[in-house]
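Note to self: keep these together.
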Amino acid sequence: MRRMSDATGNRRRTERRVSSRIQREVMQLILDRKLRPGAPLPTESELMEDLGVSRNSVREALKALQALDIVEIRHGYGTYVGQASLTPFVDGLTFRTLTRPDEEMDALNEILQVREVLEEGLIRRVAMTLSEPELDRLEAVVSRMEAAGREDRSFAELDREFHELLYGSLGNALVPQLLSAFWTVFRRVARVRDWPDGTTPQLTARRHRDIVTALRARDVEGAERAMADHFRGIEDRTAREYGEPSGGF
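Structure:
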């Protein structure tokens, strides 16, 4: 029985090593051929021949790469280069947070701290580069927040839109993706735990108004303070209410 167990374990370890090798080689193939998202990949038969492995090994490796959004398997059509989005990162971080019930506050604070570092570091950069039309769009979002606040309605999606618009002028596609990823994780955890909003919509709207007002005045330090105040409020409420997130993130 022990020998059979050892043999099974060895076989599985070998299969994992083979799968890892195939995954690396498929990724290298994508890079070497400069394939863009949506481009077709070689067929299973071609990969089997090129890599000298079985069909089952190819399929297992492609499934693993699909989970990472590196490839997209379209059944009946073939395999294509994936978008390499941050979806697997979001899923993994959400799972990591929810599986730490005894340390949930720490996990949420870690997410907040990373988001805070990103935004406070970037606000100075965008403060002097935002165009008037971009400021107008931010102000329009805040006006919609204020209208919702007067009716005591939450506006999570407007909050998300504000922060994504704020850094759009940087021309860095990764920044809004990262911010959206942390926002999504926070909201997912809140929904799973059924946490109520920890602040009033009016207060959330006012904090965003302070940010826009400073940006409109080209007051870099004021914009930094407004953003810091925004995050201090979130962190204080989160700690005070045992992890209940605020209406504004």
